[in-house]
Amino acid sequence: MDMDLEGFGDLLQKAEQLTAEMDSGTDLPHVDRNLQQILEAGSRLLSKTAPVSQDATDVKASILLGSKGYNVPKISEKLEGLSAMKTFEPLEPVRDTDIQGFLRNERENALLAVIEQTRKHTFEEVERRQWESLENEWEREKQKILNTLLGSGQETLDFQPEAESFIGDSVFTQGRSNLDHIETAYARQVYVYNEQVIEGGIRHSLVDMFYEVAKSFDDKNVTDLWEMMKCMIEVPFGRTGDSISNIRSDKRIQAAFVENAKHYLEQTYLKYITTTIYGNLQQAQLGGVPGTYNLVKSFLKVRPAVMREAEDFVLDGQPVWAIIYYCIRCGDLKAAEDVVKKAAHKLGDFPAFYREYVQSDGHRLSPGNYTKIKLQYRRVVKSSTDPYKRAVYCVVGQCDSTEDHNEVSDKIDDYLWLKLSQIQFEPDETGQDQFTLQKLQTLLYEDFGENHFNGYQQPFMYFQVLVLTSQFEAAIEFLSRLERLRCHAVHVALVLFELKLLLLPNNSQSQLLTKDAGDQAPMRRINLARLIMMYTRKFEATDSREALQYFYFLRNLKGENLFISCVSELVLETREFEMLLGKLERDGSRKPGAIDKFKIDTHKIIKHVAEDTETKGLFEDAIRLYDLSENHDKALSLMNKLLSQVVPQPSSPQSNRDRLKNMAIGMAERYRKMQHTATTSNTNTFYLLLDLITFFDLYHSSSTDQAYDVLKQLKLLPLTAEEVEHRVNTFRHYTDEVRRCLPDILLAAMNTLHSQYKALRYYNCLCLFQYLNYLRSQARVLIMFAGMLPYRLPGDTNARLVQIEVLMN
User: Fold this and answer.
1) What are residue 513's DSSP bridge partners?
2) Residue 109: CA count within 13 A, CB half-sphere
3) Among 553, 524, 337, 548, which residue's Cα sits nearest to residue 442?
């Protein structure tokens, strides 16, 4: 006991001496703690001590949050205060007298309300976006299937197009094309037009080109269609930079459309009269001075007009009002004016009205005469029994737009001409309701519709009704629904699109025909991209080059380059990579493909196709395309991923490994001869994987000595105990593709050593005994290396390595 007290006294003396030394010459504050205080502090620290994992987590969290300026204890207090609110439900109200508690409760309730609202909004937004993404994806797939069904009117065989077939060739390859003779003729004109655009020279009128080829179809309806389009598109264009919607809504443009439609109907009617006369020359008794007046008189002899008025309304044996009407109907206002002058004394105030109508700009009467003629029409003319007189007054004075004039306009052309003649563009100073182009469009398209006009039985007539009232988009959509007429609809759309007269939707994924909220009713918009893809679906598999010509029109659509997207889809559908995109030669040069004819950034297109191909999981095709677009680093990156999966497999003909190996060897030979842009890491990994393929080829062919020699040259595995640490450190720098192969490499190396050991162990020779010890030592080195690797090997790899090593003892 004395010795214990003496030892404790010495310890206390030394502690005081150390304390004195610490107090001397230091600026640190002095802290006095007795043993009880030290014990209590130690107890508090001990009470905070958690298991090792939790303690390490708390320390790391404190360091992280502290480095960002957060006070960990205060945060802990706040979190503990909210621990009871894990469900984020409002707190229970406190007593009314507890003001501090009430305020604190309200503040916490407000925070909880914000958290709950944000959480709810976040989940709703995520769900909404998820469904929107799914709907868009399904819509694309649905439209793709629909385009396929619409584009294949009959079952077609998937013939592969020949690489040397160009649309510009003089002779098309027979027996393989899904294009009929009409579609082929149109495609030739499209090719010629695109060539002119690409060359940048003077280009021909696309509508004239289509009209010329349409005349060879020996189909009057088609010829009339293109004659009508030639007439309708002759309009003054709006200011530079105006949107197509503004151009189409411009009163000047709409007035030009109306005048063009009237002119077409007038010229068509003049042809009809002429044909009727020359078909009945004996009855017509044509003679006199050539002109519209004599033609009308002869026509009335063949198709007599009913005379319901007194004989003084007759001129040269024919009703005056009928002659005036037919002259105006043929578009010859001068001939009608001559008739009015001859019968002026019998026509009352009408000669003055007509004179102003002919001489005024836009054939519009002055407000005074406009009021007079409408008043005269209501009081006298409307009750007249002469249908031609009523029709002439309605045309000149734009009276009574509700009257159909069935006795005069017994055909749809006559009805359209009368209604177009009554359209008003200037405001009516009398305050009466005007008959506008929009009202006529609504009447024909929405009120009557295609059933009224028997559209499916008479498609050209209904198409004409819509086009002559400048409803181009609805006309194109209607005609495109008929498979045999879809080609005409597509090429009409191309003409209007090139002239910037076609209304397109803002979203290229929209339906074929849509209505925009900002457009005047009943204006519609047509999705040109969808129309073209629906049309080309029929022949893209057999006539890919021709499909490219149509996709070229989509290159400058607002917001996106649909040409690239369509090319990508075309390549993936037809799998004609080399024919469409080109081919790499052995020397690294690129053989041009069909897209090179368009003189655009081919590398950008190929890269886009490569990205789409990779997204679809077609990695081998993606490698070729990345290589073709000179994106060598991406090509090697994908190749390394594919090679790492097949490196340990045995070689067999026509296998994935054999195909990838040949492809990789071709790339390696080409990259050694030419400069490439791949990173050093991907390049080294690529060549290392090729060497490992060589090793496994030798290993699987039982060439164990050669295989081990290759493995030594690669310096991937240690050969002695001294190399283990160095090889482990070197292994850290290998990519995942190489690391993935390591378990198979270790097992193959161990099996190689074991094979050599079995082949020599029965020989009794000192030098062989030393070599067997060398093989055993190498096996132990491999096990040591496998144990030190910072890489998790498969569960049975280490066990199998040990088993093989045991067999060598």
Assistant:
1) 526
2) 11
3) 524
Mean pLDDT in residue range 255-268: 94
Bridge partners (DSSP) of residue 526 are 513
Structure tokens at 153: 């009117």
Q: Which two tokens stand for residue 428?
A: 């009516």
Cα–Cα distance measured from residue 244 to residue 249, given in angstroms and rounded to the nearest whole number: 8
Please give the C-alpha separations between residue 108 and each of 72, 81, 127, 273, 625, in angstroms, as whole numbers. Answer: 20, 10, 28, 90, 59
Q: Of 79 and 415, which is predicted with more confidence?
A: 415
> 490 to each of 502, 532, 644, 805, how far by Cα in Å?
12, 7, 49, 75
Q: What is the pTM of this model?
A: 0.71
Under DSSP, is residue 581 helix (H, G, I), strand (E, B) or coil? helix
Helix, strand, coil percentages for the chain (3-state, nearest 5):
65, 0, 35
Amino acid found at 212: E
Angle CA 56–58–63, to nearest 5: 95
Distance in angstroms (rounded) separating the CA atoms of residues 244 and 519? 11
Under 8 Å CB-to-CB from 367, ≥6 apart: which residues? 429, 430
Q: Which of 666, 649, 671 is nearest to 741 (CA)?
A: 649
Axis-axis angle for helices 251-279, 459-468 (nearest 10): 140
Return the pLDDT at 156.
35
What the block records as the tokens of 220 is: 């009057």
Residues, the chain, total?
809
Per-residue pLDDT tens for 557-578? Answer: 865 578 888 888 888 888 888 8
pLDDT in tens, 533-553: 999 998 988 899 999 999 999
Sequence-distant (≥ 6) Cβ neighbours of residue 252 within 8 angstroms: 236, 238
Mean pLDDT across 720-738: 86
**What is the CB neighbour count within 10 angstroms for residue 320?**
23
